[in-house]
Design a protein that fits this description.
The protein has twelve helices and eight strands. The chain is of the alpha/beta class. α1 links the parallel β1 (3-7) and β2 (26-30).
Amino acid sequence: MQTACVLGAGTMGHGIAHCLAAIGVQARLYDVDSAAVAKGLAGIRSNLDKGVEKGKLTAESRDLTLSRIAGTTDLDAGIRGVQVVIEAVPEKLELKRALFQRLSAALGPEVLLASNTSSLSITKIAEVSRHPERVVGMHFFNPVHLMKLIEVVRAEQSSPAAVRAAVDLGVRMGKDPIEVRDTPGFASSRLGICIGLEAMRMFESGVASAEDIDKAMVLGYGFPMGPLKLTDLVGLDVRLGIAEHLARELGPRFEPPRVLREMVAAGKLGKKSGQGFYAWPG
């Protein structure tokens, strides 16, 4: 795989494009919004600059990675001649299905089609494709350029060759893949959201402050980041959507707590809005 297109220039999308370009893949970053494309490209440069400042990258390596990334708002141009498309658009099933239907009509059966969804059914996404056997899930973790895990999700229709291609690409990107069957929340989201929702309930009932709840998991259980701070980074609206989906699919133990609904309604979405369980100045 030498050429790829990433659909969606948000936090996850531009992170995926960054990792692809870093391993020598020509990466096209697509979004319907030109401002989002520009912001995504700026985010990649910022992350690469930080790597240079910390001595983890050379300036030459940074410049070479940037040279392999192009932004576009033209989907047809973005997917022309690619060997893989990775979708990272908002978590709306019908939006993803419409995209995959369009992709499958435009691309041959040899092109790998992957979704970065954290909880939606890959099987339902794949069923609109002309060649559903080439559709898989490739669930990355934020920040993409630093996190080692990638969850490769096998839909009911996914061929062994497509799953193997996704795993191989993940390894090539420096990730450590796990393979999971397509079930609600897969493995990581299902476990992660359980801890996150319980932390929110504890915060809501005054058990401890957000800082101390997070400290308990970092110092007591070795988590690299507490569940409430992680929620702020992921986005409270994103976590609310995942929780609502899992509640519908798996039952009331995933019902979002009141504090999560109220914070999202108030526009407190975490780092991207400047306020969540923590304040994020600037």
